[in-house]
Design brief:
Elements lengths: L11 E3 L8 E3 L6 E2 L4 E10 L2 E7 L8 E2 L2 E3 L6 H13 L3 E12 L4 E10 L10 E7 L12 H16 L5 E4 L6
Bound molecules: zinc ion.
Amino acid sequence: MNYCSHCGAGLLLRKPDGDERLRHVCDQCGLVHYQNPKIIAGCIPVWENSILLCKRAIEPRYGTWTLPAGFMELGETLEAAARRESWEEARTHLAVEGLFAIFNVPHISQVHVYFRARLLDHQFGAGVESLETRLFREHEIPWADISFQTVSHCLRLYLEDHRNRDFRLHIHDIVPDAA
Ligand SMILES: [Zn+2]
């Protein structure tokens, strides 16, 4: 961040009075430009015993499989964001069910929130951010080609709870892969 979005002056990185952290501060208009974590909303779309995954048509991780998820928009609720991402990426309409997982990802300042969801009908397809969408049964999930650590973690937790017929809320901290 180089310039003030309010007055256009150059920004300085310094601690404002009474603050413990470095902030981007505008000395011309006095505005402090706080930066805060971003929220990613997604879901686990289920049809009978299968999970709908999307093959990414965008970087990062082009060509790998993921759950529909993305950055919340201003003025949106979490559930609406999860439904919108499912429409944009997988051209499917969902009934959003329980809150399933919250992943803190502090090394990239993000929080990922996943809901369980059911396809309302057997309609789905590739949105502009996807090359392909497909239903996977448990033994078909392409574990080596899952896009992100949070997604594979979410899928493993879901399948475990599904086997136990007991869906719980999972709150985990994600640390970078050693690999
Ligand atoms: Zn300013």
